[in-house]
Amino acid sequence: MSEHIVPVKVYVGVFLTLMVMTAITTFVSGIDLGPWNTVVALGIAVFKATLVVLFFMHVKYSPRLTAIVIAGGIFWLLILLALTFSDFATRGWLPSLVGT
Amino acid sequence: MSAVVAPEPEPIEPRDNYLNAAYGVRSWLLTRDHKRIALLYLVSITFFFFLGGLFALLIRLELLTPAGDLVQAETYNKLFTMHGIVMIFFFLIPSIPAVLGNFFIPMMIGAKDLAFPRLNLLSWYIYIVGASFTMWAVVHGGVDTGWTFYTPYSSLYSNTHVVATAVGIFITGFSSILTGLNFLVTIHTMRAPGLTWFRLPLFVWSHYATSLIMVLGTPVIAVTVLLVGAERVLHLGIFDPSRGGDPILFQHLFWFYSHPAVYIMVLPAMGVVSEVVTTFSRKNIFGYKFVAFASIGIAVLGFLVWGHHMFVSGQSVYAGLVFSILSFLVAIPSAVKVFNWTATMYKGSISYRTPMLYAFGFIGLFTIGGLTGLFLATLGVNVHVHDTYFVIAHFHYIMVGGAIMGYLGGIHYWWPKISGKLYPEGWARFAALVVFIGFNLTFFPQFILGYLGMPRRYHAYPPEFQVLNVLSTAGASILGVGYILPMIYLAWSMRYGRNAPPNPWGSTGLEWQTPSPPPTENFKVPPIVTEDPYIYSHEEVEIVG
Amino acid sequence: MADVQPAEPALQHQFESMEQQKEASSLGMWVFLVTEILFFGGLFLTYTIYRWENARAFADASRHMDITLGTINTVVLIFSSLTMAMAVHSAETGRRRLLILFLIATMILGGVFLGIKAVEYTDHIQHHLFPGPGFRYPAGADAHGASLFFSLYFAMTGLHALHMIIGLGILTTLLLMARRGRFTAEYFTPVEVSGLYWHFVDIVWIFLFPLLYLIGRHLH
Questions:
Q1: With bands split at pLDDT 50, 70 and 90, how would you rate the model's confidence at C220?
Q2: Is B245 part of any domain?
Q3: Which of A51, B341, B435, B514 would give a disulfide with B482, using CB separation of 3.0 to 4.6 Å?
Q4: Chain C residues within 8 A of A20 when measuring between CB atoms
Q5: Is B544 an 8 Å CB contact of chain A?
Q6: What is the pTM of this model?
Q7: Does C141 touch chain B if contact means CB atoms closer than 8 Å?
């Protein structure tokens, strides 16, 4: 890891941003946006997680390999989610293989 | 004052290698030396290999006759379940990585040890603890769910020791994860000066790929068996159809790991084959980068095909099509390797030593196993041969004809380095031949049986299948002899074998630049690498041994 | 040949330099966190499929969550990530007393989180919302979907809480080491990698909170 020492005010700034985003996500959840509720909630969660990863976990100041490792892990989780979901979402699209 | 000073007695042997550096049980059980840890694993997995073999023997004895007359159906269910669990989780998955990988990866990269030696020892202890839970289950009546633990039978209805076995597998999974983690970090951060990625031996590349799978896949089966255990203990209902649960979801979670797991079992063996084929053809590998990238390709593509185990389970046909096409794709990097090994041998100076015999066996039998995988990946064919002996033959060709032959080839190839002794070549070649003959006699008839419709996991069958079953059982007994022979002569060689020189095969590779057996710190002076691997000269070299 | 005394007493024998050791330790923790992504990932998959199949039931069941306690817990955990980052910062700058202070603060916040979770669990169990034979749900509602929701709630937050407890154990070890003066501005790798673990556990909660507490609030 690099020798770069993150200044305290960056940590405090990130913390305050995370607080604001938490307040927003809780507040928005009470408003009916239909299917967008989930999108907004997850989007905010991803944004918060990114801030923690980049600044609290120093990834912004770390070697590229670290970012590749993280991206790999997330990508693999997405493989699990996407391919499994592709089964459940496409049931009934084609006739069954085994009889009726 | 004068005192008579007796001369210092001559030491019986200098303490110069990892085997005699320290004596006593504590020096083995508390070791941090990757080489000693490899031997701890060697002893443990050999025990489980023979335990799994015992279950196989009982299965084949039952199947000598069409009637279910040796054991009851419930007992037979336990036999094939325990055979699968023990062989997969406690033998095959650790085998080459935990024994040969642990021993040789640090040496091949010029390091003194792995990145985390204490974690390495912990991995072995975790393996033993996990195995103990499973052994407890075996001794107290076993498990009858099949190694696949399909719900809701495993989560609700089975009256056997599912929880103990699930706990055992959960714990052992961490052994695998930590080994993979150790290998990945070691290969990334501890290569000797000058050892760039494309100068690494292919054995290291294949273990890197294997470690990716261990790290990415094992956690998913860990959480899955945890859920099955939670189902049984807490009655959560996650996989209970009567409470909204979905058994097919279990299958997705299970096979997400268990398909890539088969690549955990075969990739290390492919790494052994690359080393053996180059050494005993005295020739550079054909297409180094292709083989290296093929290992990574197998690891990656292997994660995209798991649904081919679920074509007839109720999975959507559309997803079945996707998984079928992807399964065809994963055959390609494997085929690339087979072509490249063959091209390596072309115009090479071949010597038919035992490791090379096992490599030949691997290449031929893995090819057959792999090609039959394509039959299974074809949706239409799969409908007819799913859950038949065709599947059993397919995966045994890969796991036994492939992985176990690779393991035995590697054990023989590196035996001089590990033990400092030469094994008796005549007996070893004979045993390899016995294994090859026994293997094919056991499993080739099973392709035919499956094609003719004999279902798997049944202890009784229609009389017209008896001849093929008898042939298979005969083959299994011969195979068993073939496996016992190395136990005997390898042990014999440790006491009575000729001492091995540092490099009996005339091989390139850093591990051969040390004494046999190596010193604890591997290299007296840390090596510097200046050339590609597998640079063989055309001079005649006498192969000792 | 006499053993060369390493210039750095903290340098382990298998490494050539402190920098290599630090690089390996950091990469090792990140690889471990990837395994944790996949470990929790199996539960996230189960949640995704069951919520997709039982959307209304999940939303209704989620309204049994105490949003105040959930939000407080989210704030507590994010605050604990700040104190953990400050602990690493104190170690980096060689400030032993501040390091100890921030480690203790992080542990207190972690304890508060677990305490609130214990209150929530007790409440849910008393209301017969733990799945299994004791599960009781209002008539006319989708009890199966609700049962699946609560199974996932207890499984996911339970696993998360287990990781918090392990985290507290790790912090205790760090605290003892810090008190004995084991860390300097040159060597504080255990603090750093433990921080990575703690932040990861926080990130899991950042996702659990909206997925378990906030899905039904906009419905009536």
A1: low
A2: yes
A3: B435
A4: none
A5: no
A6: 0.94
A7: no
Over residues C112-116, mean pLDDT: 98
Q: What confidence tens digit (pLDDT) does each residue in A38-92 have? A: 999 999 999 999 999 999 999 999 999 999 999 999 999 999 999 999 999 999 8
Percent of the residues in chain B that have a pLDDT greater than 70, as a whole number: 96
C30 close to B (CB below 8 A): no
DSSP state of B544: P
Are A93 and B316 an interchain contact pair (Cβ–Cβ within 8 Å)? yes
User: Any chain B CB within 8 A of the CB of C147?
Assistant: yes
Contact C210 A53 (CB under 8 A): no
Distance of CA B424 to the CA centre of its chain: 24
Contacting B residues, span 368-407, partner chain A, CB-CB under 8 Å: 379, 383
The answer to whether residue B519 sits within a structural domain is no
Q: Which of B108-122, B227-241, B373-387, B529-543 has the lowest mean pLDDT?
A: B529-543
For chain A, which residues make up each domain, given as ranges?
8-90
Give exposure, B130-159, as e/b (b: 16+ Cβ within 10 Å).
bbebbbebbeeebbbbbbebbbbebbbebe
Q: Report yes or no for ipTM above 0.90.
A: yes
> Shortest Cα distance from A83 to chain B (angstroms)?
8
Does C20 score more than 60 pLDDT? Answer: yes
Per-residue model confidence as pLDDT tens digits over B433-449? 999 999 999 999 999 99
Q: Spell out the alpha helix ranges (H) of C54-95.
A: 55-62, 67-92
Would you say residue B297 has pLDDT above 50?
yes
Model pLDDT, residue B53: 97
Overall average pLDDT of the B315-336 stretch:
96
Q: What whole-number distance in Å separates Cα of residue B432 and Cα of residue B409?
A: 9
| B498 φ/ψ angles, rounded to the nearest 5 degrees | -70, 150
In a domain, B43, yes or no: yes
Q: Which of B188, B304, B321 faces A83 most closely, judged by CB atoms?
A: B304
Query: Would the CB atoms of A73 and B216 count as touching at under 8 Å?
Result: yes
CB of C215 within 8 Å of a chain A CB? The answer is: yes
Structure tokens at B412: 């023989």
Put simply, the answer to whether C24 touches B116 (Cβ < 8 Å) is: yes
Contact B189 C24 (CB under 8 A): yes
**CB interface of C with A, residues 146-205, below 8 Å:** 192, 195-196, 199-200, 202-203
**If we measure between CA atoms, which residue out of B126, B111, B108 comes closest to residue B37?**
B126
Q: Distance between the two ends of chain B, CA-based, in angstroms?
A: 58
Structure tokens, A33: 């946006």
- For the domain that residue B101 is a member of, what is the CATH number? 1.20.210.10
Q: How many CB atoms lie within 10 A of CB B436?
A: 21
So what's the pLDDT on residue B511? 95
Q: Say whether pLDDT at C6 is over 50.
A: no
pLDDT tens digits, C134-161: 888 887 778 899 999 999 999 999 999 9
Asked if the Cβ–Cβ distance from A83 to B306 is below 8 Å, we say yes
Count the domains in chain B. 1
C-alpha distance from A76 to closest chain B C-alpha (Å): 7
- pLDDT tens digits for range B420-435: 999 999 999 999 999 9
- Best mutation target among B122, B156, B238, B251 (most C Cβ atoms within 10 Å) is B238
pLDDT given at position B1: 41
Q: Cβ separation of C15 and B230 shorter than 8 Å?
A: no
Is position B410 within any domain? yes
Helix (H, G, I), strand (E, B) or coil at B122: helix
d(Cα A94, Cα C145) in Å, to the nearest integer?
27
Token pair belonging to A54: 């980049």
**Helix intervals (H) in B282-316:** 288-301
Asked if the Cβ–Cβ distance from C154 to B184 is below 8 Å, we say: no
Q: Tell me whether residues A49 and C195 touch, CB distance under 8 A.
A: no
